[in-house]
Design brief:
single chain, 339 residues, alpha/beta, FAD/NAD(P)-binding domain, nine-stranded mixed β-sheet, 8 helices, 18 strands, 27% helix, globular
């Protein structure tokens, strides 16, 4: 039973908020602890990709987990409806030259997927067109997206359910502590499994003077995504880097790479943001009980935190209630990297 349980969630990113929402809706007394304001974390520095197919085709770490990621995507319509979020269902286009598209097509077929091919002149219209390295694309209709600004909507929904927000550390008098932090090891005594996590930094650019209204465009080395307030261009992945400050040289290099794919970006003004996520050796998060009593982990999502958040939140709630967490429990086990 969850009703009456006292639960503290450490971490105000999308995993922490999804866990707090699931627990509060189930009747638990929930507090959420984060020293920063809502949106001052890596979940907010994101394009909100809900993109299992594109991730499986372009990220070798994600390829073995397409089934899990598709199951996570299946939870999103109900999650979005419950918390009044808007899903962008326009899909994605994987851009490239003939060699890249041939390799992606073969990878898709290996995964049992048949993706339509688009020539460059049939690809979505983009300001300034495409660079010489783009001869066409593969249409990925299954992929979706959520605006990362939805983090604020989730926080408001949690507050409406009675979740108490605090910048202070979690108290000790609890039934459960949910550790949903990033790469910080401040709670490693409470959750020794955090030792498996390593930081991974990402930069993202916003072109405030450009508007684009179409599917996500994922080119070699850079993607373009529509967003309120200007076009989003992302993203770097800097393994082992824990400094959250924007590095001008890294952001500038991303802008140059993006201009090679999307020539209309050249010489346009942009602003940069950076966030530091946590990653496990296999690219999947730690979701489940710690070997320390009274602690549940939901941390280390790497680059698929938004996609996996409803699944992680539901599993955290199931563990707290003493119920079956579902078929992904072993693959996401919090103790899978510890003896």
């Amino acid at each position: 039973m969850t009703k009456g349980l006292r639960v503290a969630v450490a971490g105000g990113g999308v995993f922490g908020l999804a866990s707090a929402l699931a627990l509060a809706r189930a009747g638990a007394q929930v507090s959420l602890h984060d020293p920063g304001p809502v949106g001052a974390n890596a979940s907010a520095v994101a394009a909100g990709m809900l993109a299992p197919v594109s991730e499986a085709l372009t990220d070798p770490a994600a390829t073995p987990h397409l089934d899990l990621m598709m199951a996570a995507l299946d939870l999103w319509p109900a999650f979005a409806q419950a918390w009044n979020l808007t899903l962008d269902r326009r899909g994605a286009v994987l851009l490239g030259d003939e060699a890249r598209l041939a390799a992606l097509t073969q990878a898709a077929r290996t995964l049992g997927l048949d993706l339509p091919t688009l020539k460059a002149d049939r690809s979505p219209a983009f300001p300034g067109g495409y660079g010489a390295a783009v001869s066409g694309g593969l249409r990925v209709q299954a992929d979706q997206r959520i605006d990362a600004a939805s983090l604020g909507a989730l926080a408001k929904a949690a507050a409406a359910l009675g979740v108490r927000f605090s910048p202070e550390p979690p108290p000790e008098d609890l039934d459960w502590l949910v550790v949903a932090t990033g790469p910080s090891r401040d709670l490693i005594t409470e959750a020794p499994e955090l030792a498996a996590l390593e930081p991974i930094k990402g930069h993202i650019l916003r072109y405030g003077d450009l508007a684009y209204d179409g599917p996500v465009l994922r080119g070699p080395g850079a993607y373009a995504a529509p967003a309120a307030g200007g076009l989003l261009i992302g993203a770097t992945m800097e393994a082992g880097v824990s400094d959250p400050q924007v590095q001008d040289e890294v952001a500038s290099a991303l802008a140059r790479t993006a201009a090679g794919v999307f020539p209309g970006l050249a010489n346009r003004p942009w602003t940069a943001a950076a966030g530091v996520r946590a990653a496990t050796p296999d690219g999947l998060p730690l979701v489940g009980p710690s070997r320390a009593p009274g602690v549940i982990l939901a941390a280390g999502a790497r680059r698929n935190g938004w996609l996996l958040a409803p699944l992680a939140g539901a599993m955290v709630c199931a563990y707290a209630k003493g119920e079956d967490p579902g078929i992904w429990a072993d693959r996401l086990s919090a103790g899978r990297f510890t003896a």
